[in-house]
Specification:
Blueprint: E1 7-10, H1 12-21, E2 26-29, H2 33-39, E3 41-42, E4 46-47, E5 51-52, E6 57-58, H3 62-71, E7 82-85, H4 90-101, E8 107-110, E9 137-138
């Protein structure tokens, strides 16, 4: 059977609006523990690393860890809206693809990520991203 679940690509502002409108939506930050703690993370984000420092290998238990995070909430259904974010949108898209393979049907990828795209000087956080847009976040 062909998988027809579309992963919707949204910017950080649209992601925040979705999270505000759908109280059962879950924001999943898939960055490493170091990034989550020291760079910062969106307020209310559930942390489930897709890859972990220093090897940067994919987490073979990613889908199980997301399922465990859902079990802690009121809505465990695989049709619950899941909004995935990473640094710039690449890892979170791969993580969303993995969740689609496991039957999740309402998947959103935050395209600009938490830190955003690189500018001409190769710096992040200066042209787009969750933090750049002034959305709520914390460090530590």
């Amino acid at each position: 059977m062909e998988d027809i679940t579309e992963i919707l690509r949204i910017n950080p502002t649209a992601a925040k609006a979705l999270l505000d409108q759908e109280s059962h939506a879950l924001l999943i930050d898939v960055r490493s523990q170091v990034e989550f703690d020291y760079v910062g993370h969106p307020l209310g984000a559930t942390h489930v690393p897709w890859k972990e420092f220093p090897q940067w290998t994919e987490n073979p238990n990613f889908a199980d860890a997301v399922e465990a995070a859902l079990a802690e909430g009121d809505n465990r259904n695989k049709d619950r809206p899941l909004v995935l974010i990473c640094r710039s949108g690449a890892r979170s898209l791969k993580a969303a693809e993995r969740l689609r393979e496991h039957g999740y049907t309402r998947l959103y990828n935050v395209e600009e990520g938490f830190e955003g795209d690189k500018d001409d000087q190769q710096h992040r956080g200066t042209i787009n991203g969750w933090r750049f847009r002034g959305l709520p976040w914390a460090q530590g």
